[in-house]
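Record 1 of the preview.
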Amino acid sequence: MRQTRSNASSGPRGQKRPGVSRTPGAASVPGDTRARRPTGQPGDRSRPAKQRPRQSSPRAQEAGPGEPLPPELALLSPSPTPVTQTSSVATLDLGDQRERWETFQKRQKLTFEGAAKLLLDTFEYQGLVKHTGGCHCGAVRFEVWASADLHIFDCNCSVCKKKQNRHFIVPASRFKLLKGAENITTYTFNTHKAQHTFCKRCGVQSFYTPRSNPGGFGIAPHCLDEGTVRSVVIEEFNGSDWEKAMKEHKTIKNMSKE
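->
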């Protein structure tokens, strides 16, 4: 793995910033729904009851009534109209691609949602790789989509200097906490905008919410699992004079944007 260091005044050399090639997903994959057999109404055995298929929302076990659709399902909506409870796989219009879709799903041994997520991740995150990482004791684990060539900020503000907080920044949509929410605690100071999250068991900060990008995450590259980082460029950031450094820096404030 190559590593390069530069300062903010001269700009990083050999920098390759993570890019995002996003194209709206074209497939719609609502969850499966099943109709319950009609039963006769109490006290009336002379005539069958009208059939009323039981309706259930996508991923009913995970998202309760009235809760918004998960982001991955919201992306798959065929129109601006939200997926309703009457949606089902049977009504999914795949046209001539239905057989191909079902074959792909069976071959990969995935649910409809899982197959859609795999294709969307592959299509939307072109040029990026999925990094995984976590704290020392393993209580906190996460995954993040970013470039294999990482642009690292080395901040010298009062807290970052003490804990050696080197990090790269990604939009919140590319970060997923896999486990350990109950094991995370947060330290804040001064403006309280930066959320310095760390594992309360082993004390390691593997990611946090930076003051420069409150809409994203700062990921500690040294907390990533091996095998996905190709090179590293380190840029020194003068956090000790934070307001001036932010004003002079041309790109850092936009690194959490899609």
